[in-house]
Amino acid sequence: MNRITPQRAAIAIALALLATLPVWVGNSYYINIASQILIWAVLALALNVLVGYAGLTSLGHAGLFAMSGYTAAMLLAAGHGHFTADLTALVVTLFTTAVFAVLALRATGIGFLMITLAMGQILWGIAYRWADLTNGDNGINVSTRPAPFGLSLSNAPSFYYATLVVFLVAVATMAVFVRSPFGASLTGTRDQARRMTALGYNVWLIRFLAILFSGFWSGVAGLLFIYYNQFISPQVVALTTSAEALLMVISGGSGTLLGPIVGAAIVVVMKNVVSAYIERWNLVLGLIFILIISFMPEGLVPGSVRLWRAGWQAIRGRADAPAAEKPEAPR
Amino acid sequence: MSALQIEGLSKSFGGLRVTADVDLAVEPGERRLIIGPNGAGKTTLFNLITGELAPDSGKIALFGRDITHTPCRRRAHLGMARTYQIITLFPRDTILRNITLALLGLSPLRWNAFADLGAQRDLVDRARAALLRVGLDHIAERPLAQTSYGERRRVEIAMALAQSPKVLLLDEPFAGLSVDERRDVQKLLRAIPREVTVVMIEHNMDVALDLADRITLLHFGEVIVEGTRAEVVADPRTREVYLGA
Question: What is this model's ipTM?
Fold first, then answer.
């Protein structure tokens, strides 16, 4: 089982690059961009559980992301410790997710999308208008970053490493989840819900648990976000955030592990790097998205795999052309 | 005690009575054929029996146990399995994975989010055994998208058989099959042990009549004739409704 396959080699190289990133990037501006990519990738991976594996498209994930961020920020501002604030934030987010799920699961497809959109907008309204609670448009400052095991996370490389650890745990959890029997149950409800019921599965409960799982990781991403920015404002809760997360999942390739990560990288790089050179970076992002959807409707990662295989086969096919005439061995 | 007992079952869609006061008793091990012209309410009756639809009135009992209000998914756990007239499989998965999902549905393992499904030898072996029964084991790893219609029909049956049901409901298992494929499926259905009670809807009389112990003729949602093969075929009402005068 310890053979070196191209896939394992690629994972090892990717891990080595990620682990040494602050060394070869050097500049803390770019290290921070890498941290941002990882944070958004966690949110995109969480959303991907629903979009890719459950076949339920949500436009309310910014609400869950911000529910966690706001709860932690408010508790920190009130003088609570990081551990209490973060744990409470995750519990509150899970509870909110459960409410989301119970209401949204009355429908699938467009109905599900609209209900999640509506609930996301309600949370945005609370963040924006209920100023006594959320400080409205002024947002909430987060004065300090936590120092797990006494390690300060105040500079760019240390925060990057903390984010990387959380990100890798998220990816590993997703990888295990996707291969598990429960993961198979979930994709089954995506592809053939009616059959799944007849086979003895509780389709509603499977979807509900998947939404909770997704909500949990959205909450974790929300915590990383407030610690990175040390600030949260209603802008984060806005529909744009949900749409961007969805854009990451779809452009990278929903229903794959790598897709949402690649999608997060594209959007964050566009937002931060390209915007320094082109004022209308949104236009560039839109064009890229249109190109991806036109030529790789399944997303960048699965699309590239498809093109790579087709190209590889074209090259091999030419080389093997005389051999192809041999009859196939009987089975 | 009947394997499946239905009393006064009715279902209407708006003003249309699709199932009208149906009584039906299928004995354990029996092969029951349900026939009737298009729109007679055969598939609706199946959907009521499996719980995919809720009846307006009436009772359904499985081996003496009232299941009228038991959810569809629980009925699978009580030993009821079905196939669909319109093939209802998992198109993105392999044949083997389709069958594995059928087995997983009855296993507590289906809630496990940590194990590796591919490493569950017991489940995979049982799925392969089910495929052997329908003669598809040699293409177990083939994606469903690359299989023929006839093969998919057999996957439908294998999924139901894999669950080792007590009552098996087959909705037109011969639909759209070639003569050769029909013969294969016929052989396959004949090999089902008598511990399994089989209720089958079928249009194709020459293949289906042969398998049936008793026949029920439905017309406009009502049971018109019921009896042995010879009785139903000889009945003038059957000729009138179904076989053509």
Answer: 0.90
